[in-house]
Amino acid sequence: MRSGATPEEFAARSAAILAHPRFAEARQVAIDRYLALYSGTPALNKLLIDGSKHVVIMFAVCLAAGQREDEPETWLTLAKLQDVVSTLQVGSPGLVEAIVGRMIDSGLIATASAPRDRRKKLLVPTEALIRHDLDMLAAFAEPCTVLGSHPAFDLAMVRDRGMQRACRIFSVSEFARAFQTLMKHAEMMNFFQRDSGYLVLLAFLQSALSSPDGLISTVLYKDIAERFGVSRAHVRNMVEDAEAAGLMRTLEPGGAGVELLPDLMEKHDRYFADCTVLVEQSFVVPYETMIAGPQ
User: Fold this and answer.
1) Yes or no: domain 188-265 corresponds to CATH 1.10.10.10
2) Which of 128, 157, 127, 124 is nearest to 47 (CA)?
Protein backbone atom coordinates (compact mmCIF):
# COMPACT_ATOMS: atom_id res chain seq x y z
CA MET A 1 0.00 0.00 0.00
CA ARG A 2 1.45 3.34 -1.00
CA SER A 3 1.93 6.05 1.61
CA GLY A 4 0.11 9.34 1.84
CA ALA A 5 0.91 12.67 0.24
CA THR A 6 4.37 14.18 0.13
CA PRO A 7 4.85 17.28 2.34
CA GLU A 8 4.48 19.49 -0.73
CA GLU A 9 1.32 17.72 -1.87
CA PHE A 10 -0.07 17.87 1.65
CA ALA A 11 0.54 21.63 1.97
CA ALA A 12 -0.97 22.30 -1.45
CA ARG A 13 -4.11 20.28 -0.69
CA SER A 14 -4.53 21.95 2.71
CA ALA A 15 -4.29 25.38 1.07
CA ALA A 16 -6.81 24.33 -1.58
CA ILE A 17 -9.25 23.22 1.13
CA LEU A 18 -8.93 26.56 2.92
CA ALA A 19 -9.63 28.38 -0.35
CA HIS A 20 -12.50 26.10 -1.38
CA PRO A 21 -15.77 28.01 -1.97
CA ARG A 22 -17.63 25.48 0.21
CA PHE A 23 -15.06 25.45 3.02
CA ALA A 24 -17.44 27.06 5.56
CA GLU A 25 -20.12 24.49 4.74
CA ALA A 26 -17.69 21.59 5.16
CA ARG A 27 -16.48 23.02 8.47
CA GLN A 28 -20.05 23.34 9.73
CA VAL A 29 -20.87 19.77 8.75
CA ALA A 30 -17.74 18.55 10.52
CA ILE A 31 -18.61 20.42 13.72
CA ASP A 32 -22.22 19.26 13.72
CA ARG A 33 -21.40 15.61 12.99
CA TYR A 34 -18.55 15.44 15.50
CA LEU A 35 -20.68 16.89 18.28
CA ALA A 36 -23.55 14.54 17.40
CA LEU A 37 -21.15 11.58 17.49
CA TYR A 38 -20.26 12.31 21.11
CA SER A 39 -23.70 13.19 22.41
CA GLY A 40 -25.60 10.88 24.72
CA THR A 41 -23.56 9.35 27.53
CA PRO A 42 -21.03 11.85 28.97
CA ALA A 43 -19.04 9.30 30.99
CA LEU A 44 -18.56 6.98 28.01
CA ASN A 45 -17.91 9.88 25.66
CA LYS A 46 -15.15 11.21 27.92
CA LEU A 47 -13.41 7.85 27.59
CA LEU A 48 -13.84 7.86 23.82
CA ILE A 49 -12.68 11.42 23.13
CA ASP A 50 -10.39 12.70 25.87
CA GLY A 51 -6.75 13.21 24.90
CA SER A 52 -4.60 10.14 25.44
CA LYS A 53 -7.66 7.91 25.93
CA HIS A 54 -8.90 8.71 22.44
CA VAL A 55 -5.47 8.08 20.92
CA VAL A 56 -5.06 4.74 22.71
CA ILE A 57 -8.52 3.59 21.62
CA MET A 58 -7.88 4.54 17.99
CA PHE A 59 -4.50 2.79 18.03
CA ALA A 60 -6.21 -0.34 19.38
CA VAL A 61 -8.80 -0.31 16.58
CA CYS A 62 -6.16 0.22 13.90
CA LEU A 63 -3.74 -2.40 15.21
CA ALA A 64 -6.55 -4.94 15.55
CA ALA A 65 -7.52 -4.39 11.90
CA GLY A 66 -3.98 -5.11 10.74
CA GLN A 67 -3.13 -8.18 12.80
CA ARG A 68 -2.49 -11.49 11.06
CA GLU A 69 -2.94 -14.86 12.72
CA ASP A 70 0.32 -16.28 11.35
CA GLU A 71 2.41 -13.26 12.43
CA PRO A 72 2.51 -12.97 16.23
CA GLU A 73 4.37 -9.66 16.05
CA THR A 74 1.18 -8.11 14.62
CA TRP A 75 -1.12 -9.37 17.39
CA LEU A 76 -2.88 -6.72 19.43
CA THR A 77 -1.66 -7.34 22.97
CA LEU A 78 -1.31 -4.93 25.85
CA ALA A 79 2.47 -4.96 25.34
CA LYS A 80 2.09 -4.17 21.62
CA LEU A 81 -0.24 -1.28 22.35
CA GLN A 82 2.07 0.04 25.09
CA ASP A 83 5.03 -0.11 22.73
CA VAL A 84 3.30 1.86 19.96
CA VAL A 85 1.99 4.51 22.36
CA SER A 86 5.38 4.85 24.06
CA THR A 87 7.21 5.13 20.73
CA LEU A 88 5.03 8.09 19.74
CA GLN A 89 5.36 9.55 23.27
CA VAL A 90 1.59 9.73 23.71
CA GLY A 91 1.51 8.05 27.11
CA SER A 92 3.31 5.78 29.53
CA PRO A 93 2.84 1.99 29.71
CA GLY A 94 1.01 2.48 33.02
CA LEU A 95 -1.41 4.95 31.44
CA VAL A 96 -2.11 2.57 28.56
CA GLU A 97 -2.81 -0.28 30.99
CA ALA A 98 -5.21 1.93 32.96
CA ILE A 99 -7.03 3.06 29.81
CA VAL A 100 -7.31 -0.53 28.56
CA GLY A 101 -8.77 -1.51 31.93
CA ARG A 102 -11.42 1.19 31.59
CA MET A 103 -12.14 0.09 28.03
CA ILE A 104 -12.69 -3.47 29.22
CA ASP A 105 -14.96 -2.29 32.04
CA SER A 106 -16.91 -0.14 29.56
CA GLY A 107 -17.45 -3.01 27.11
CA LEU A 108 -15.25 -1.53 24.37
CA ILE A 109 -12.47 -4.13 24.57
CA ALA A 110 -12.55 -7.84 25.39
CA THR A 111 -9.69 -10.29 25.89
CA ALA A 112 -9.07 -13.64 24.23
CA SER A 113 -6.32 -16.22 24.10
CA ALA A 114 -4.05 -16.06 21.08
CA PRO A 115 -4.90 -18.78 18.49
CA ARG A 116 -1.47 -20.41 18.54
CA ASP A 117 -0.24 -19.44 21.97
CA ARG A 118 -2.88 -19.56 24.67
CA ARG A 119 -0.46 -17.96 27.13
CA LYS A 120 -0.77 -14.70 25.22
CA LYS A 121 -3.86 -12.58 25.78
CA LEU A 122 -5.13 -10.58 22.82
CA LEU A 123 -7.13 -7.38 23.08
CA VAL A 124 -10.26 -7.55 20.93
CA PRO A 125 -12.38 -4.51 20.01
CA THR A 126 -16.01 -5.33 20.76
CA GLU A 127 -18.90 -4.80 18.38
CA ALA A 128 -19.77 -1.63 20.32
CA LEU A 129 -16.34 -0.14 19.60
CA ILE A 130 -16.41 -1.28 15.97
CA ARG A 131 -19.80 0.38 15.48
CA HIS A 132 -18.54 3.56 17.12
CA ASP A 133 -15.56 3.55 14.77
CA LEU A 134 -17.85 3.08 11.76
CA ASP A 135 -19.93 6.03 12.93
CA MET A 136 -16.79 8.11 13.38
CA LEU A 137 -15.53 7.32 9.89
CA ALA A 138 -18.92 8.27 8.47
CA ALA A 139 -18.81 11.56 10.40
CA PHE A 140 -15.31 12.23 9.04
CA ALA A 141 -16.30 11.36 5.46
CA GLU A 142 -19.33 13.65 5.23
CA PRO A 143 -17.37 16.95 5.24
CA CYS A 144 -15.12 15.46 2.55
CA THR A 145 -18.16 14.96 0.31
CA VAL A 146 -18.86 18.69 0.54
CA LEU A 147 -15.40 19.45 -0.85
CA GLY A 148 -15.39 16.76 -3.54
CA SER A 149 -16.75 13.33 -4.45
CA HIS A 150 -15.00 9.97 -4.23
CA PRO A 151 -16.29 6.39 -3.99
CA ALA A 152 -14.25 5.89 -0.81
CA PHE A 153 -16.25 8.59 0.95
CA ASP A 154 -19.48 6.94 -0.17
CA LEU A 155 -18.38 3.59 1.28
CA ALA A 156 -17.48 5.22 4.58
CA MET A 157 -20.83 7.00 4.69
CA VAL A 158 -22.72 3.68 4.41
CA ARG A 159 -20.41 2.18 7.07
CA ASP A 160 -18.85 -0.43 4.83
CA ARG A 161 -16.72 -2.72 7.01
CA GLY A 162 -14.29 -3.58 4.27
CA MET A 163 -13.57 0.12 3.83
CA GLN A 164 -13.23 0.48 7.59
CA ARG A 165 -10.66 -2.29 7.81
CA ALA A 166 -8.67 -0.92 4.86
CA CYS A 167 -8.68 2.57 6.37
CA ARG A 168 -7.50 1.34 9.74
CA ILE A 169 -4.73 -0.83 8.31
CA PHE A 170 -3.50 2.17 6.32
CA SER A 171 -3.66 4.32 9.45
CA VAL A 172 -1.12 2.08 11.19
CA SER A 173 1.50 3.04 8.61
CA GLU A 174 0.60 6.70 9.00
CA PHE A 175 0.55 6.98 12.83
CA ALA A 176 3.77 8.96 13.11
CA ARG A 177 3.08 11.25 10.15
CA ALA A 178 -0.45 12.07 11.30
CA PHE A 179 0.66 12.65 14.88
CA GLN A 180 3.44 15.00 13.79
CA THR A 181 0.97 16.94 11.64
CA LEU A 182 -1.52 17.38 14.46
CA MET A 183 1.14 18.37 16.98
CA LYS A 184 1.98 21.40 14.82
CA HIS A 185 -1.34 22.86 15.94
CA ALA A 186 -0.36 23.55 19.54
CA GLU A 187 -3.42 25.65 20.42
CA MET A 188 -5.83 22.93 19.26
CA MET A 189 -3.82 20.25 21.06
CA ASN A 190 -4.16 22.30 24.26
CA PHE A 191 -7.93 21.90 23.97
CA PHE A 192 -7.61 18.16 23.31
CA GLN A 193 -5.53 17.72 26.46
CA ARG A 194 -8.36 19.01 28.68
CA ASP A 195 -11.31 16.86 29.75
CA SER A 196 -13.77 17.06 26.82
CA GLY A 197 -11.76 20.11 25.75
CA TYR A 198 -12.18 19.83 22.01
CA LEU A 199 -15.90 19.14 22.37
CA VAL A 200 -16.22 22.27 24.51
CA LEU A 201 -14.43 24.29 21.82
CA LEU A 202 -16.70 22.88 19.13
CA ALA A 203 -19.78 23.79 21.18
CA PHE A 204 -18.56 27.40 21.29
CA LEU A 205 -17.81 27.31 17.57
CA GLN A 206 -21.20 25.83 16.71
CA SER A 207 -22.95 28.56 18.68
CA ALA A 208 -20.77 31.38 17.36
CA LEU A 209 -21.02 30.35 13.70
CA SER A 210 -24.81 30.45 13.95
CA SER A 211 -24.74 34.05 15.24
CA PRO A 212 -25.19 37.05 12.89
CA ASP A 213 -21.48 37.93 12.87
CA GLY A 214 -20.23 34.36 13.22
CA LEU A 215 -18.10 35.22 16.26
CA ILE A 216 -20.28 35.49 19.37
CA SER A 217 -21.20 32.30 21.21
CA THR A 218 -24.18 32.42 23.57
CA VAL A 219 -24.22 28.80 24.77
CA LEU A 220 -24.12 28.82 28.57
CA TYR A 221 -21.31 27.22 30.55
CA LYS A 222 -23.82 25.15 32.49
CA ASP A 223 -25.31 23.74 29.29
CA ILE A 224 -21.88 22.78 27.95
CA ALA A 225 -20.94 21.28 31.32
CA GLU A 226 -24.08 19.13 31.44
CA ARG A 227 -23.68 18.03 27.84
CA PHE A 228 -20.11 16.78 28.23
CA GLY A 229 -19.99 15.71 31.85
CA VAL A 230 -17.65 18.39 33.16
CA SER A 231 -18.10 21.20 35.69
CA ARG A 232 -19.01 24.80 34.92
CA ALA A 233 -15.74 25.79 36.57
CA HIS A 234 -13.90 23.55 34.12
CA VAL A 235 -15.55 25.29 31.15
CA ARG A 236 -14.95 28.73 32.68
CA ASN A 237 -11.29 27.90 33.30
CA MET A 238 -10.90 26.84 29.68
CA VAL A 239 -12.33 30.16 28.51
CA GLU A 240 -10.09 32.10 30.90
CA ASP A 241 -7.03 30.26 29.59
CA ALA A 242 -8.15 30.92 26.01
CA GLU A 243 -8.56 34.59 26.90
CA ALA A 244 -5.03 34.71 28.27
CA ALA A 245 -3.82 33.19 24.99
CA GLY A 246 -5.69 35.81 22.95
CA LEU A 247 -8.17 33.33 21.50
CA MET A 248 -11.44 34.28 23.22
CA ARG A 249 -12.97 37.23 25.05
CA THR A 250 -15.74 37.12 27.65
CA LEU A 251 -18.49 39.65 26.98
CA GLU A 252 -21.11 38.41 29.45
CA PRO A 253 -20.78 36.09 32.47
CA GLY A 254 -21.72 32.42 32.44
CA GLY A 255 -21.15 32.03 28.72
CA ALA A 256 -24.04 34.27 27.68
CA GLY A 257 -21.52 36.11 25.50
CA VAL A 258 -18.12 34.73 24.50
CA GLU A 259 -16.37 36.21 21.48
CA LEU A 260 -14.18 33.89 19.45
CA LEU A 261 -11.32 36.06 18.28
CA PRO A 262 -9.93 35.98 14.73
CA ASP A 263 -6.73 34.23 15.84
CA LEU A 264 -8.76 31.29 17.17
CA MET A 265 -10.86 31.07 14.02
CA GLU A 266 -7.77 31.14 11.81
CA LYS A 267 -5.94 28.51 13.87
CA HIS A 268 -8.96 26.22 13.97
CA ASP A 269 -9.50 26.57 10.21
CA ARG A 270 -5.89 25.65 9.49
CA TYR A 271 -6.18 22.70 11.86
CA PHE A 272 -9.42 21.58 10.20
CA ALA A 273 -7.86 21.86 6.73
CA ASP A 274 -4.88 19.72 7.76
CA CYS A 275 -7.15 17.18 9.44
CA THR A 276 -9.25 17.00 6.29
CA VAL A 277 -6.20 16.19 4.19
CA LEU A 278 -5.34 13.38 6.61
CA VAL A 279 -8.92 12.10 6.47
CA GLU A 280 -9.11 12.27 2.68
CA GLN A 281 -5.94 10.27 2.20
CA SER A 282 -6.96 7.76 4.89
CA PHE A 283 -9.96 6.94 2.68
CA VAL A 284 -8.62 7.42 -0.85
CA VAL A 285 -5.26 5.62 -0.57
CA PRO A 286 -6.65 2.36 0.88
CA TYR A 287 -9.59 2.49 -1.54
CA GLU A 288 -7.25 2.72 -4.50
CA THR A 289 -5.26 -0.18 -3.12
CA MET A 290 -8.45 -2.23 -2.74
CA ILE A 291 -9.44 -1.51 -6.34
CA ALA A 292 -5.98 -2.33 -7.67
CA GLY A 293 -6.04 -5.70 -5.94
CA PRO A 294 -2.99 -7.88 -5.18
CA GLN A 295 0.15 -6.72 -6.95
Assistant:
1) yes
2) 128
